[in-house]
Write a structure and sequence with these properties.
Structural class: alpha/beta
CATH class of the largest domain: Alpha Beta
Strand order of the largest sheet: 3-4-2-1-5-6
Bound molecules: adenosine-5'-diphosphate, 1,3-bisphosphoglyceric acid
Strand content: 15-25%
CATH topology of the largest domain: Rossmann fold
Radius of gyration: 23 Å
Number of strands: 15
Number of domains: 2
């Protein structure tokens, strides 16, 4: 069991808090945040620490080296300053003397945002906790920190130094986001059955692998497919979709379509594919049954019959896990499947939603009422397929040290 903020006497201590505020940027190259959901998620943990009179140094990443969204955290710090009652400063250094000096002179009850951890090469590599503890970032920062709090659930599937290294050197605790996510997602096998996984979106190969894991292990009783994933399963089943749709499928699925075909053979009663789709013809949404395919136009959503069939499955489901939009939700005409399916999933005993684009779809379509909306995409799916997360293993073993 990991220790939480309930186990921490924070007053007067210097606390390093790893958060995941990796966010979509505005796209204008101005480094402004297009969405602050991940920052708002951490407000509880950060406020609790400042109200308890701790000095808080925030560690986080943004983007990946050479990627479009690889940026400084200065805009994140400004937004956190607006969101928190406590004063928030920013320093464009992560672990050098300038950063360490600022941490040492921080006032109790205030926050310092350190620079993007991934500006340093070691942070872009994977380590086991013992070796992560020897990296410059962890070794130097540990000298000026008393305690480490990991609240970065969305990065908990990574083995980077700032995620797994501090637990070897400092008393370490899970933050409130980490605690809530592990509670909601950690014991998926204990959630009521039948458990239904709805796999949509465009990460076709990942979703095919997830389908295999959850069906084989019995974590899921049924897998329903939508989005490009649904079209990929139809394609693997020998349905001739038409050139446009097939080319979206094959551009998204590199080498797992054979596995999809095998899964349809092995679990014929436990995987469902769409019975109809919505295509775009002359700028309009037209619904077509699968039997009437192929068509020239691209299939951008599931059709009403599929929506109704899947909604019936939700009515008797104990747990529904949804990942990935059912269609091109960015276009109102093809948001119908996502809107109606996610809405009816709230009829299930317990509903869990994860995924970056999925969270954006929920906001855009005004969908709510789920039992848990995860801050993580990859991390949530790793947990929901029964994997042990490196961040949690490190917090667990840190608690034993
Ligand atoms: N039928 C479809 N054809 C083309 N794109 C689709 C279709 N269904 C969903 N998508 C696209 O999938 C993308 C989201 O997928 P993904 O990144 O896998 O979701 P998440 O980040 O939630 O895991 C969206 O941009 C959406 O437009
Ligand atoms: O956005 C994240 O993951 P996600 O896209 O799976 O939700 C996390 O910040 C992890 O980032 P990474 O996938 O670059 O390690």
């Amino acid at each position: 069991m990991i220790r939480t903020l309930d186990d921490l006497d924070a007053s007067g201590t210097a606390v390093g808090v790893r958060v995941d505020i990796n966010s979509p940027l505005s796209g204008d190259g101005d480094g402004l945040l297009a969405d602050d959901a991940r920052l708002r998620a951490h407000v509880g943990t950060l406020s609790e620490l400042t109200e308890r009179n701790a000095r808080v140094a925030v560690l986080a990443h943004q983007g990946r080296p050479a990627g479009d969204e690889f940026m400084s955290l200065s805009a994140h710090a400004r937004r956190l300053d607006e969101l928190l009652d406590a004063p928030v400063e920013y320093v464009d250094a992560t672990f050098c003397k300038a950063a360490r000096d600022r941490i040492e002179t921080l006032e109790n009850g205030s926050v310092l945002v350190l620079e993007n951890t991934r500006f340093y090469s070691e942070e872009n590599m994977s380590f086991d906790p013992v070796n992560a503890a020897e990296t410059h970032l962890v070794e130097r920062l540990s000298k000026v920190l008393d305690v480490f709090v990991n609240d970065a659930f969305a990065a908990a599937h990574r083995s980077q130094p700032s995620i797994v290294g501090f637990t070897e050197r400092l008393p370490s605790f899970g933050g409130r986001v980490m605690e809530r996510e592990l509670e909601a997602l950690g014991e998926i096998r204990d959630r009521p059955s039948p458990r239904v996984y709805v796999l949509g979106g465009a990460k076709v190969d990942d979703s095919i692998e997830i389908a295999e894991t959850v069906l084989q292990s019995g974590i899921a009783d049924t897998v329903l497919t939508t989005g490009v994933v649904g079209n990929a399963f139809l394609h693997a089943d020998g349905v001739s979709l038409g050139e446009e749709t097939a080319s979206v499928v094959t551009s998204r699925a590199r080498d797992r379509l054979d596995l999809a075909e095998e899964l349809l053979d092995r679990f014929p009663d436990r995987i469902q594919t769409p019975s109809d789709v919505a295509i775009k013809r002359d700028g309009e949404r037209i619904e077509r049954s699968i039997e009437s395919l192929p068509v020239e136009q691209p299939a951008f959503d599931v059709g009403q019959e599929t929506i109704d069939t899947y909604a019936e499955v939700f009515e008797t489901a104990g747990t529904v896990v949804l990942n990935g939009p059912a269609g091109v939700f960015e276009d109102e005409r093809f948001a119908v499947g996502t809107k109606e399916l996610y809405n009816s999933a709230t009829d299930a005993g317990f509903s869990i939603v994860g995924g970056g684009d999925t969270a954006a779809a929920l906001r855009q379509l005004g969908l709510s009422g789920f039992d848990h909306v995860s801050t993580g995409g990859g991390a949530a799916l790793a947990l929901l397929t029964g994997e042990q997360l490196p961040a949690v293993t490190a917090l667990d073993s840190g608690a034993e040290n």
